[in-house]
């Protein structure tokens, strides 16, 4: 999906539906689209800030203005890449609200994204597991464990409205990067299937537009990953390849700055195929089994 023309609504508080508002952070990039979207969910009596985003003074000021006099009862994160969770700690100090959501991942990721290595300062007050929930007057936000993009990734279902906040797991503008060692392709595909079995009315991702054809998009994403897997197997049936040779063959025309991220997803596919005994490797060389 092409980037929309500027100006983007950075810093503006936009109402999406009753009890759901959105504030866009000023961290747009080829990996974050127009930026991280922080969601304010709930009412004046009890509000949750979901994915508070980067620790950026401008964004924190916009969140504070959007919160106004509302009582923040929780600051919630889908996962702990640096474009999602660093604002949780300062916002917690400002509002007195606990950080409740995904667990911490203490891993220095080798993912080649300036905005995405893990937030090693993230310290949740409470970790939510699959099916755990937060609630306030008229709303219930239930955690849906969706590992794959990261091992700690959660989506959140607003049960009263049928909305699902999908973080980086499902987005309309791009597929999610799955970067080992923490990202896992088998987990990612299982999590996609988990969402396909649901009947959510609308997805609100952390980056990019809302998604109304939810199951159709997920079905397409599963098909896309299976197509990439078949592409890898066809290449290796022809001859053994190194990862660095496979990526430009698989992603013809992709911008050079995005090729390292694509390589991470190919690596995740190879590791999954290796576990399933479909491929083997010798040093840096991969071959069909």
TrEMBL record:
Gene3D superfamilies: Ribonuclease Z/Hydroxyacylglutathione hydrolase-like (3.60.15.10), Winged helix-like DNA-binding domain superfamily/Winged helix DNA-binding domain (1.10.10.10). The keyword Hydrolase applies. Residues 35-207 form the Metallo-beta-lactamase domain. The keyword Chaperone does not apply. Keywords: Hydrolase. SMART domains: Lactamase_B (SM00849). GO terms for molecular function: hydrolase activity. This is MBL fold metallo-hydrolase. It comes from Altericroceibacterium indicum.
